[in-house]
Amino acid sequence: MDLLSFLKSKFGFSAFRPGQEEVIRSLLDGKDTLAMLATGTGKSLCYQLPAYLLDGSCIIVSPLLSLMQDQTEQMKMRGEKSVVALNSFLTGPEREAALAHLGAFKFIFVSPEMLHNRYVLGKLKTIRTALFAVDEAHCISQWGHDFRPEYLNLGEVRKQLGTPLTLALTATATEQVRDDICKYLGLKDPNRFIYSVNRPNIAIKIDRIPSYREKEEKLVAYAKNLQKPGIIYFSSKKAAEEMAARLRQEGIAEAAAYHSGIDQEQRILIQQQFIYGQIKIICATSAFGMGVDKADIRFVIHFHLPLQMEAYLQEIGRAGRDGLPSIAVLLYTEGDERLPLQLIEAELPTDAQLAAFSRWKGDLKEAGAALGCTEPQLRFLLHHRVLNLPEEAWTREVAAIRNERMAYKRRKLKEMVQMVRSSSCRRSEILRYFGEPPAAGNEACCDICGLETALYESNQKSGGTLETVPAWELLLQDLFRKGEQKWHEENRRI
DNA sequence: CGTGAGGTAATTATTTACCTCACGGTGCGATAAT
């Protein structure tokens, strides 16, 4: 099969990016496949292309509504009309119409929660599924155990659908997480295509700062001096808001905050303005980033400590997709691990909550409020209520599960802290975490190996070019970017 | 744990100093139907 000419005629690309062809051939051979490809290397092609060559529909499990909307829009722009996103954006009648003619769609995007709905799943069972693709598959492991438990149910969904050919896609997963993905999807001995997570053009810097106040000042200085655009990550909505306001006050740049507390429309607007260059700095929580496809982000700063290396890597990986030099800075003050620790603890129920829940006789919907649970805590309790045990035994049993999960999360945080405190090459530490060999020498590696921060500052170019580029040109650049991108990225098969 | 908001006392009246307390991230779907 001449895949290359098909690629050319259907998608207009003249060559595959690293990994794409192997993944596609694996699927066309009928093998379940796990693919870990660096961010922005065109993962969606890995399910789109084979879907055309297979008989039946392609179901794509996607974690975010905005991601589904973006993907369907892009496909429609390319001329593919046989696409639907089954989610709560559909009105009742729209949804009915879509469900009545599911088989007519080549591509069906759907959330794990929607797949949990028996009626929807029943409809999906009636059509021929050629390919079951799970996008951002690390979410299974990262979110499935508590935050979004429907993710753990995907294996059962897959079985219900008649165990179709399956593709799991991700950009960041350790060996253990990859095993988790296979386990929960019920993949037996899939082909695995694993590429390096290394992004050589992103320099890594970790600053140890004596106090919170000094950290703020340092951050403002970075925001002033570094080449923009950039993202600053916070673990608190309030801190993100306050810093955005402060940056505006100091007249540094067009700065805006982005977090889950901002209403949906406003969030979309801010993201668009950032992509088209009207906003230069985003002060964000972890809500920002997935699916943000902007090539020229020059810096990512962490004001707070991420909860795990995977999150850190994903967040810094949003810089420098154009292959140009970019920098990731993490500001660390002794004791910063307390905040993520707090967040972790609020995810799982306390002993008191477990005991109270085991004795709960009222309406389950009221239990959360009565016990003072956060939403993840309540989900955890509800998820485990099926264990048919007497009160005390149940409490003991579920407490053990909780403890194990808590220990796992603490371990992940500890690994993050160890990297930050370590005095060996940052890049090699990250690679080691993902089971890769150390970094091969790179002149702009990290603060340990030696780094010239001035290279990333905007006064290098006296004035910079971005300010003088008119908006229409940015728009054009963006359109071209979507068409053809060159990656100077080293993609090492391991 | 560290921050910020809000309260209270202090020996003079508006301000300061100190205390206590709450808070801290991520998203789907949301009625019923086969």
UniProtKB/TrEMBL annotation:
Gene3D superfamilies: P-loop containing nucleotide triphosphate hydrolases
One of the protein's GO biological processes: DNA repair
GO function term, MF aspect, one: ATP binding
Organism per entry: Heyndrickxia coagulans
GO cellular component, as recorded: bacterial nucleoid; cytoplasm; replisome
Keywords assigned by UniProt, alphabetized: ATP-binding, Helicase, Hydrolase, Nucleotide-binding
Name of the protein this chain belongs to: ATP-dependent DNA helicase RecQ
CDD domains: DEXHc_RecQ
Origin: domain of life: Bacteria
Record domain Helicase C-terminal: where: 218-365
Higher taxonomy: Bacteria, Bacillati, Bacillota, Bacilli, Bacillales
